[in-house]
Amino acid sequence: MAAAAPPPPPTPAPSAPTGLPDSGSDSTPAGHPLFSRIRLATPLDIPYIQKLIHQLAIFEKLAHLSIATESDLASTLFKSQPFQSFTIFLLEVSSRPFENDSAFHSQNFTPIERIINLDHSVTDPEAEAFVNGINGDVVVAGFVLFFPNYSTFLGKPGFYVEDLFVRECYRRKGLGKMLLSAVALQAARMGYGRVEWAVLDWNDNAIKFYEEMGANVLPEWRICRLTGPALEAYRDAN
Amino acid sequence: MAAAAPPPPPTPAPSAPTGLPDSGSDSTPAGHPLFSRIRLATPLDIPYIQKLIHQLAIFEKLAHLSIATESDLASTLFKSQPFQSFTIFLLEVSSRPFENDSAFHSQNFTPIERIINLDHSVTDPEAEAFVNGINGDVVVAGFVLFFPNYSTFLGKPGFYVEDLFVRECYRRKGLGKMLLSAVALQAARMGYGRVEWAVLDWNDNAIKFYEEMGANVLPEWRICRLTGPALEAYRDAN
To answer: Which superfamily is assigned to B32-98+105-233 in CATH?
Structure first.
């Protein structure tokens, strides 16, 4: 559970697709451009994902419940084609344009790139832990994990967003919106009927952010959970 | 959405596996036995499933939102191995023991059978619409639709129960519990970490029933939904 709670973004910074900067004649916009990219995660990204999950748990004050190891993730994720089951979009940022890395282009998904023009450059105290090993100056900044759900009323699949997380120093720049929008776009392209996720009822900033993105918060539904020994009891009884 | 709201069952009626009746020396228990079976649904069951979904929508006073046709269901369900994606357990009942129909036994799931001894036989006003075409005296009485979800904290899959429904004349006999227990048992057998579903906060009977089954109702989480034109807008913007 636990779609993280990105605070509402400020008035969005101007952005433009890579290669189409909105100022100047060379490929680097003025100011402090933050080149951002969303791509499908791969098994090589598991060390980053494990750290991001743990940071999300700390953010939600639920670190004691976050026990997934890299081995747990490796044995349960990336077992099927993207979008057919558990799927992760990874958010990467760089102070320089991304190299055109064809390894991240697939028939399933073409990476989404944006340039965010910032007034000040970002100081990332954890850059060393999140530097991408393949591209030296690229840093992992967040992720979204989602999977298909199903609406019997619509007779259509949708997506459920389990986690949405942006590392602290990259928040309030529209990156959470970029991640969630990528899932919504994918759902719309696939003809799916819904995107759903959960939010904590006291998190007014997150609720405002989600409503601004077009979502409704359903007031009457409560989530029921059967887990731990109470779940194991069903096996033991049979 | 919408795990239906079976009222809490009364003190469970005695039950025993088929072939092991709890009274008498022949294979038919005394009283009014209701032979019940849970098996994996197949594409042949879509007409029943479509009718059950519509009855669930009426039960929830949401019939206007229930627009799935048999064609919608046929094009979106049964596309992968059971338990890997959207999965349906069908509940059937009969006044006679089930024939040993090997067609419903698979390496994925062995049907679960129970005999429920009732004080009075059930009058089913819709029997004609729900008679199973293959087995003349077998009637479809309910279903549960579920699919894998994922807990990043546990690093494990689980199951999310989208719909749980028992037709009105078969309620209050423990059949809803039998369906939900079958999902919990399957999750436990697969080593999954959780079974989750949603309940309406005003449905005290359902909440009591679920708590008695070992579930916790999470008070703080709210479901967010992006659908319809608000979802389509993400495609149109790209």
So the answer is: Gcn5-related N-acetyltransferase (GNAT) (3.40.630.30)
